[in-house]
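During the second half of the funding period, the structural biology subgroup turned its attention to how the target accommodates small molecules. The most pressing case was flavin mononucleotide, which had performed well in the primary screen but for which no bound structure existed. We therefore specified the complex as follows and requested a full 3D prediction, including the ligand pose.
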Amino acid sequence: MSKVLIVYATRAGGTKKLAEMIADGIRAEGKEVEIKPVTYIKKREDLQGYDAYVFGSATYHGSMIQAMKKMLFMAEGGGLNRKPGAAFGTYGWSGEAPIRIYETMKNIFEMDMVEKPFRVKTADITSPEVKEQAEKLGREIAKKI
Ligand SMILES: Cc1cc2nc3c(=O)[nH]c(=O)nc-3n(C[C@H](O)[C@H](O)[C@H](O)COP(=O)(O)O)c2cc1C
């Protein structure tokens, strides 16, 4: 069965919550999903064997969390090319991380990206609209497989 990998980088847990909501949407389309913290991805092979990839990071000091940067460098040449992809993350006011991740997936890995990065303000994380949007993103990525 087709399988999606979600990798997230978080400090306070918000971006992990978002990952779980996106996973619900993927499962709703009948696809398998694995959710992993970025620290579990130690080598290129850890990224292999999936049909689509969803990467997320919170924004700190205008940037993605360092471990996600490291993983994106490592992922180059790791077989992600042209596979379906999406990027997400919670943020406070500027939210650069999901944009930078999205751009890397699109321009370096040439992935088949969903329309835009999925960015959620910390204060909105518990809103029903966000849950709905996250599940919609999950369904969208699953349908691309
Ligand atoms: C020290 C610090 C720096 C931050 N820097 C930014 C920032 O540059 N831009 C932004 O949008 N949010 C910033 N935030 C807010 C976080 O992105 C926000 O709280 C986010 O939801 C945290 O996600 P997490 O729960 O997944 O760690 C910062 C928060 C802290 C504590």
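Two results from this model are relevant to the next phase. Residues 128-143 form the longest helix (16 residues). The first strand starts at residue 3 and ends at 9.
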